[in-house]
Recover the amino acids of this structure.
């Protein structure tokens, strides 16, 4: 990733996606019978504009109780994203299919480099698959979504199904890609790190799942090593379960870092509907500790976990109104550090109140208030949005937000007030579009930054065209 | 022959001569008898049927002396010739000419639609073979209170059953061979009301009959079904009209009006089984699905790759029947306002359930989605610090902390560029002395601004202070064994062998 500004954009990958997408969009929009050719997917284009004010340290440096940063003039980021998602099958052999999700990005004369907009091309998914009643074989770039996180790899996987699909076993292996990215660690980190692993990381692992009546339980083991076998990047396992009972649902998850010999994240939750579903009571105990690959030094700095208990209550007296209230308390583990001055707090609290109300048949109001304090800062924020469906195909949403934020030992406190408008439209059954704009006006609460640094403006527009048969939920926008 | 009057007698003789010419001759007396009796039977049946449909105005009783035998007027009955099954109106006019007798207007009755397969000629032949003298037109067509010409036009089952014994106790019993006596409905020329009024067996009233049993009966009893049904009745519900059981039933001919029927799709018992949704593919043959379901039903849930066998099902647009018309509905778990928090565990525990309704790109929409303001609220950029530090959401689920976060922080002026100072951290001069606790509590936040080298400046063995970042419990030997390259980022050699 390049952090340089104003560099000439290299459009090669982006153009490929744009050209393919542009070629498909009118075709897809006008030809519903593509489904008969066993092709399904969507083509999406997104444009975004973000305007904000970066900060820079004053030449005089930082003095106590004096501003040490100044807000620079407004800078803008214009970016474009072109997606192409297709799944094709019917190649003459039952169960054979190919799936791709390609993404091209471009900066359009931006002052700012918005994250990843200088990453011109991503093959997010690109695999071939063979499905039979008892097994599935997949090869190519694919994702791992498990209790160990959400990541990708280039390789192969085999899944076997037993019984009447109650049992599933899977094995996979290949080249590991960095979490949150579709690149090997060493390439992803090179733009921002001097110290990067000089070898690629290979991953292999497996999982087993059983589903018996209301119980689903999955265990997973995964190991990552450097390609020359000179070191370990990670060795972890996870256990996830969901148990549905007549009175509620229990979920549980825990992962374990075999390399460090410590437990990782965990969650145990119980949710129980009461009074014919009018009430929903949930209690959760969780544990969070960040995970770092052994390829970086961060894991050897031994971050501590926090444990949290949360309680939530949902009340839905009618089909048109739902209110939720919840709160949590968390405590961090002993850091073992000797803090000479003003030790930091080791616990935090948070609460949230939310409501959703269908005022009339086509108007829905969402409102929420969040309160959070603890190590790292204090936040008091309120959001409200009103969505109205003007007709079956067009809806408009207005949002308003305000917050107060005090960040402990960090720059950036103050109050904000903002609002925005957005729309979602179905131009046809196969062409969806959405867009919006928002403004945020910020006033600093302390003196670390001159002027008001956080004023932001944002606008976006997207177009999505369905290819082949409408897969229903798959390509509908989230409401 | 009984003469009603002189005029009639004369006309009767003329008619007798005409009939005599029509007869095949006098070669075989027995054959003549057969034909005679058969013709009489047929004629009687025709008359009886005509009475059922409309009042027969012909006064048989009054013409008894004029027409001594049935075949005299109904010669075509025995041969199956519809033209000569009734006499021509001209024949009436020979007497009813307005001079001898008053003029009359008589037309041969139109036989009402019937689905009975009775064939007079077959009976005539049968009679010839058996030589049963009892069989005559009168044996079926006569009014018990009257004479021979007192024709009873009604068709009663008892008349048939007087000779033909039913093989089952009840008329509608499953063993009955309806086709023995009835033509298929498609050949009956019944109108809509007549079809609607057809009686139905008691078995049809059982709810299980529609849901399950009739499908098992049809293969062996298609002819029986066809007595009262055409293929259109099947296609009211069945979405797949190519099933051989349906193809075995004749279609209604053009012009036949059928009663309106409503599609019903009672759920079979198998669908009530626990785990049905999980394993339905393995539990029934696909062809059974096509009773109620089209491809569109499958696709309403299976939004990913649709198996080839699904393509064997008809599409909704190709079907005359509406089909069960499944509608995608979110599971109960999705209706919880807490679902977003819990969905990762549910997906990890049973990802296959997710894959039923969601294609993988659906996950990517949030986890690596385009920047269209979809997941985070509009003001999130300005206030995300608290979220990031408190980890309401695990940022690393979607973002690379080292790359995504740090790149933006650098752009915005907040990322560390190798210089260590107190500026960003509240301009607090002693921040360096306090930062260890914050780092251990939330190292991801540190990594979102700082490169590893920033830390190595002090924590490396060659750094300014050589402060160990490890805890007392740190297993250096294990770390070296696992990833010596990483150790060497701070240590110049094997740390196990280094001097303390």
């Amino acid at each position: 990733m390049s952090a340089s500004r104003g560099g000439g954009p290299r459009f090669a990958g982006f153009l490929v996606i744009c050209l393919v997408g542009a070629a498909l969009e009118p075709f897809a929009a006008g030809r519903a019978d593509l489904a008969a050719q066993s092709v399904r997917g969507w083509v999406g284009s997104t444009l975004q504009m973000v305007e904000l004010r970066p900060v820079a340290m004053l030449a005089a440096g930082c003095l106590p109780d004096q501003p040490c940063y100044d807000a620079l003039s407004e800078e803008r980021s214009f970016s474009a994203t072109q997606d192409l998602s297709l799944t094709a099958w019917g190649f003459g052999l039952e169960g054979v299919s190919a799936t791709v999700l390609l993404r091209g990005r471009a900066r359009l004369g931006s002052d700012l480099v918005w994250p990843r907009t200088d990453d011109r091309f991503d093959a997010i998914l690109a695999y071939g698959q063979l499905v039979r009643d008892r097994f599935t074989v997949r090869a190519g770039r694919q994702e791992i979504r498990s209790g160990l996180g959400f990541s990708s790899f280039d390789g192969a996987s085999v899944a076997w199904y037993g019984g009447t699909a109650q049992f599933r076993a899977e094995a996979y292996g290949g080249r590991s890609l960095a979490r949150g990215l579709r690149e090997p660690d060493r390439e992803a980190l090179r733009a921002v790190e001097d110290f990067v692993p000089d070898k690629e990381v290979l991953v292999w692992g497996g999982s087993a799942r059983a589903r018996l009546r209301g119980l689903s339980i999955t265990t997973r083991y995964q190991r990552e090593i450097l390609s020359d076998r000179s070191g370990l990047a990670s060795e972890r396992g996870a256990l996830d379960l969901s148990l549905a009972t007549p009175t509620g649902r229990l979920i549980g998850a825990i992962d374990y870092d075999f390399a460090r010999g410590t437990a990782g994240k965990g969650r145990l939750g119980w949710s129980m509907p009461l009074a014919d579903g009018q009430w929903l009571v949930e209690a959760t105990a969780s544990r969070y500790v960040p995970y770092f690959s052994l390829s970086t030094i961060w894991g050897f700095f031994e971050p501590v976990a926090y444990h949290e208990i949360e309680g939530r209550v949902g009340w839905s007296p009618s089909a048109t109104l739902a209110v939720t209230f919840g709160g949590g308390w968390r405590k961090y583990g002993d850091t073992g550090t000797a803090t000479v001055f003003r030790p930091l707090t080791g616990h935090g609290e948070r609460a949230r109140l939310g409501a959703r109300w269908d005022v009339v048949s086509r108007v829905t109001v969402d409102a929420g208030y969040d309160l959070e304090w603890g190590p790292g800062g204090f936040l008091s924020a309120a959001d409200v949005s009103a969505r109205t469906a003007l007709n079956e195909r067009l809806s408009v949403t207005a949002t308003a937000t305000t917050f107060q934020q005090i960040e402990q030992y960090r720059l950036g406190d103050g109050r904000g007030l903002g609002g925005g408008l957005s729309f979602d439209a179905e131009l046809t059954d196969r062409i969806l579009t959405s867009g919006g704009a928002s403004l945020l006006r910020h006033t600093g609460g302390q003196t670390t930054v001159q002027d008001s640094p956080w004023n932001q403006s944002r606008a976006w527009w997207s177009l999505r065209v369905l290819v082949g048969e409408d897969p229903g939920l798959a390509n509908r926008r989230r409401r | 022959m009984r003469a009603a009057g002189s005029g009639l007698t004369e006309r009767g003789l003329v008619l007798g001569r005409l009939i005599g010419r029509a007869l095949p001759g006098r070669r075989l007396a027995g054959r003549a008898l057969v034909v005679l009796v058969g013709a009489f039977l047929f004629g009687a049946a025709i008359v009886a049927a005509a009475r059922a449909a409309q009042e027969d105005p012909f006064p048989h009783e009054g013409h008894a002396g004029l027409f001594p035998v049935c075949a005299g007027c109904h010669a075509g009955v025995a041969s199956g010739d519809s033209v000569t099954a009734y006499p021509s109106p001209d024949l009436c006019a020979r007497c009813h000419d307005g001079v001898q007798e008053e003029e009359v207007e008589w037309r041969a009755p139109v036989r009402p639609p019937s689905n009975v397969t009775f064939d007079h000629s077959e009976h005539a032949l049968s009679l010839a073979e058996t030589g049963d003298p009892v069989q005559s037109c009168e044996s079926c067509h006569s009014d018990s209170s009257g004479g021979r010409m007192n024709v009873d036009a009604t068709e009663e089952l008892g008349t048939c059953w007087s000779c033909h014994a039913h093989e089952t106790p009840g008329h509608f019993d499953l063993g009955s061979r309806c086709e023995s006596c009835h033509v298929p409905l498609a050949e009956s020329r019944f109108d809509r009301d007549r079809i609607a009024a057809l009686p139905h067996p008691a078995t049809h009233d059982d709810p299980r009959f529609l849901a399950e049993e009739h499908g098992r009966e049809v293969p062996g009893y298609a002819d029986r079904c066809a007595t009262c049904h055409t293929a259109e009745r099947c296609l009211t519900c069945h979405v797949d009209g190519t099933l051989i059981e349906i193809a075995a039933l004749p279609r209604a001919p053009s012009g036949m009006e059928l009663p309106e029927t409503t599609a019903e799709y009672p759920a079979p018992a198998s669908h009530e089984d626990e785990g049905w949704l999980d394993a339905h593919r393995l539990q029934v043959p696909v062809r059974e699905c096509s009773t109620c379901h089209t491809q569109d039903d499958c696709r309403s849930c299976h939004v990913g790759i649709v198996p080839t066998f699904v393509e064997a099902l008809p599409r909704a647009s190709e079907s005359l029947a509406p089909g069960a018309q499944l509608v995608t509905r979110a599971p109960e778990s999705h209706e919880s306002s807490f679902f977003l928090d819990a969905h990762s565990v549910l997906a990890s525990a049973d990802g296959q359930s997710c894959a039923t309704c969601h294609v993988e790109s659906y996950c990517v929409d949030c986890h690596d989605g385009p920047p269209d303001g979809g997941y985070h609220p509009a003001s999130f950029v300005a206030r995300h610090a608290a979220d990031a530090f408190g980890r309401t959401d695990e940022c690393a689920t979607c973002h690379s902390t080292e790359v995504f976060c740090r790149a933006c922080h650098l752009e915005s002026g907040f990322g560390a560029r190798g210089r260590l100072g107190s500026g960003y951290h509240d301009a607090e001069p002693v921040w360096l002395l306090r930062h260890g606790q914050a780092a251990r509590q939330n190292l991801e936040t540190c990594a979102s601004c700082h490169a590893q080298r920033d830390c190595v400046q002090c924590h490396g063995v060659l750094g300014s202070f050589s402060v160990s970042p490890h805890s007392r419990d740190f297993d250096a030997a294990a770390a070296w064994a696992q990833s010596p390259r990483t150790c060497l980022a701070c240590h110049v050699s094997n740390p196990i062998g280094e001097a303390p």
